[in-house]
Design a protein that fits this description.
139 residues; 5 helices; globular
Length: 139
């Protein structure tokens, strides 16, 4: 169920014209709203097709200081959450893992951002606190 919920969130966002623009100034407000409306999202960002992070750190205010060393330009091209949607264009959800930054039990959901012609332009990544996601489902 957690995988379904996470996939549903990302499907909605990757269709937004601001996201499809691949312009960080247009994408970041969408990501901020997403994080603000979904307290179980720990971290949201976009990488280009080379795996390079192009957006600022969009995370919960309580975690902001923990993410200050993760900046624009970080390369994630070796991560499965990047590789898989780039290969097949589908939404991917990782297995559970412990966040290196917050220590929380998390899943990562990622999806391809496409332009008007369907070409993959980047990957949206959401790191989700598993326990908070399951609590929101219970409410």
């Amino acid at each position: 169920r957690a995988h379904e919920m996470a996939a549903h969130i990302i499907e909605r966002v990757i269709e937004e014209p601001e996201m499809q623009s691949m312009d960080p100034k247009q994408m970041e407000p969408i990501l901020q709203t997403l994080v603000d409306e979904n307290p179980y999202i720990q971290f949201a960002y976009v990488v280009d097709i080379r795996g390079t992070k192009i957006t600022r750190n969009i995370c919960q205010a309580v975690d902001q200081s923990k993410y200050e060393n993760v900046g624009v330009g970080e390369n994630y091209s070796n991560r499965s959450w990047f590789i898989e949607p780039l290969k097949d264009g589908k939404i991917h959800v990782t297995d559970l893992y412990s966040s290196k930054i917050t220590g929380a039990l998390c899943i990562t959901v990622s999806g391809a951002i496409r332009n008007d012609t369907g070409e993959i332009r980047g990957i949206l990544d959401l790191d989700i606190r598993f326990e908070d996601l399951t609590k929101s489902e219970e409410e």
